[in-house]
Amino acid sequence: MKPVGVLTWLPGGIQQPAYEQQTLLVHSMTADLEHAQACGGHAECGTCRVRLVSGTLTPMGHEEAELMRDHPGAFRSGERLGCQARPLGDAVIEVPSDEVPDLRDA
Ligand code: FES
């Protein structure tokens, strides 16, 4: 795989190569970051959410858009599911420091 850029994770500033073929969640696991993933990457729980600070990610797919539509107010502007979004180039990504509620319990 050829990297498309560099991912920078906040807080902490850890950097790693960005691969379009891998989700942000796979990237963060590779970097040994603490990153919740209660539903195992099925776009059902929202616990893997991240905030895009800068850069470009793949467009939102149907399952991700549906989860956000079904839970209005649960997501802040710029947030994406780490288990669905993939980088398209350099990107700065923030992982929430607070515990995120599992939307399957909502
Ligand atoms: S791990 Fe559950 S929505 Fe991503």
Write the layout of secondary structure elements.
Blueprint: E1 5-10, E2 14-18, H1 24-30, E3 49-57, H2 62-70, E4 79-81, E5 87-94
Parallel strand pairs: 1-5
Antiparallel strand pairs: 1-2, 3-4, 3-5
Bound molecules: FE2/S2 (inorganic) cluster.
The overall average pLDDT, rounded, is 96
Number of helices: 2
> Main sheet, how many strands, which sense, barrel?
5 strands, mixed
CATH architecture: Roll
Strand content: 25-35%
CA distance, first residue to last residue: 39 Å
**Ligand names:** FE2/S2 (inorganic) cluster
The unreliable regions are none
Strand and helix order: EEHEHEE
At the first level of CATH, the class is Alpha Beta
Strand order of the largest sheet: 2-1-5-3-4
Please state the overall shape, judged from the principal axes of the Cα atoms: globular
How is this structure best described in words?
The structure is a single chain. The protein is of the alpha+beta class. It has a single domain, classed as Roll (Ubiquitin-like (UB roll)), CATH 3.10.20. The protein is built from two helices and five strands. The protein has helices spanning 24-30, 62-70, and strands at 5-10, 14-18, 49-57, 79-81, 87-94. It has a five-stranded mixed sheet, covered by helices on one side. The protein is globular, with a radius of gyration of 13 Å. The mean pLDDT is 96. Bound molecules: FE2/S2 (inorganic) cluster. The site of FE2/S2 (inorganic) cluster (FES) has 13 residues, from loops. Residues 37-39, 41-48, 81, 83 line the site of FE2/S2 (inorganic) cluster (FES).
